[in-house]
Design goal:
Blueprint (H helix, E strand, L loop, with lengths): L10 H11 L3 H8 L3 H10 L5 H13 L2 E4 L8 E4 L4 H5 L1
């Protein structure tokens, strides 16, 4: 098991990051080594997923150029695309 960051990843970040990366739910599940059902359950109910799976989801999104922005006192969690990501370069 990997525990590199120990930072939370929120369901909203997964949903938005997946869209930014141009991935289907099935593709993200496959790339993160989980099932579509587990991914869907966490994204829509915020439960049923263990920490190492969330880290794998984070790594899959980041490999597509998605930057996960932490929640602060001034704003909630967010996502953005890295400026030099492969998807940005294709446009």
């Amino acid at each position: 098991m990997k525990f590199k960051r120990n930072r939370p990843i929120y369901p909203e970040q997964i949903l938005a990051g997946r869209v930014l990366a141009g991935l289907t739910m099935d593709q993200l599940a496959a790339e993160s080594g989980t099932t579509r059902q587990t991914l869907w359950r966490y994204c829509h109910h915020g439960s049923g997923t263990v920490t190492y799976i969330l880290e794998d989801i984070r790594e899959a999104l980041e490999s597509h150029g998605v930057v996960l922005i932490d929640r602060t006192e001034k704003h909630g969690p967010g996502v953005a695309m890295a400026g030099n990501s492969a998807r940005t370069a294709k446009r």
